[in-house]
Amino acid sequence: MSTTPYVRPTTTKHSEDPADSISTDDMTPAPRTITPRSRQIWDGDFSIYWLGGSCVGLYFTFIRGYNMLHGAGPFFTIHLACTATVMASCVWNVYHIPTSPKGVVSNWYRKIHIWFGRVGLVAGFVSVVTGAVVAWWERYDPMHLSFAIGITAGGIAQTITQIIGWRSIRAAKKLKGKERQEAVQRHAVMMQSLFYSGCLIPAVMRLPAMLGLREPTGWSLMAWGIMTVYATRAVKANKSGSWI
Questions:
Q1: Distance, CA of 170 to CA of 157 (rounded, Å)
Q2: How many separate helices (H) and strands (E) can be counted in the chain?
Q3: How far apart, in whole angstroms, are the C-alpha atoms of residue 148 and residue 54?
Q4: d(Cα 54, Cα 200) in Å, to the nearest integer?
Q5: Other CB atoms within 10 A of residue 202 CB
Q6: Which of 99, 190, 195, 225 could crosslink 165 through cysteines, CB 3.0-4.6 Å?
Q7: What is the DSSP string of 19-46?
């Protein structure tokens, strides 16, 4: 007869709580994936600065500019056509910024932004060159020397912002992480500056004439100061996602 003591078999008590049956490995959160959303045409980066600048700029180039074509020389005609192209590209792209605080966008949204930018970039350089020819030769007026100087300074500012913005977005393609984000943001700031300063300063300089008013003394310089403040406020509003 065996002397081995009897050992009662033990049973494992199962918890009634379903959470107890989940292993700790299953509780690791899955990596978050961001799906680009299809932003509608009207779902853009609206601000009162964009609205005001768009109204003045489009009226200046497409309505008042068209009325100035009668009897215009070839350089002015080319200049106006390129200026209108740049203005339309800026109005669209400043409102539809892929990297805005509104979040990611779909590929078609980004591609339209890119192609509008490319067309506007080429037209911008041509408009600066032809504008200088118009201001200092084809339609030069010694009685409005300050206007010619102001227009030329605006063209130089436009060229600088275009070159910096273009180089920044090209550099972003080769960068990663924080450096890439900084390059993209620099591109966005330069292109907004192109719109609010390079494109709109010539329009604001002619604002008194468009309103049928007498141009104040030193208005060209005042227009530069006004639009510098305006551009600064506009860029800050866009960066913060505010409309004002």
A1: 20
A2: 9, 0
A3: 24
A4: 9
A5: 24
A6: 190
A7: GGGS-GGGGSPPPP-PPPB---TT-S--
Q: How many angstroms separate the CA atoms of 186 and 155, rounded? A: 20
Reported confidence tier of residue 34, pLDDT bands at 50, 70, 90? very low
Copy the structure tokens of residue 56. Answer: 């003045």
Cβ atoms of residues 85 and 117 within 8 Å: no
Q: Which two tokens stand for residue 199?
A: 């494109």
For 52-67, what is the mean pLDDT?
92
> In angstroms, how far is CA 87 from the centroid of its own chain?
12
What is this structure's pTM?
A: 0.79
All residues at 6 or more sequence positions from 221 whose CB lies less than 8 Å from its CB, including other chains = 146, 150
Burial of 170 (0-12, 13-18, 19+ CB in 10 A): exposed
Count CB-CB contacts under 10 A for residue 206.
Answer: 18
CA distance 95 to 109: 12
Beta bridge partners of 37: 105
Average pLDDT (24-41) is 53
Q: Do residues 162 and 125 make contact, with C-beta atoms less than 8 angstroms apart?
A: yes
CA dist list (Å): 147 to 68, 144, 152, 202: 17, 5, 8, 9
Tokens read off for 87: 């203005």
CA distance 93 to 108: 13
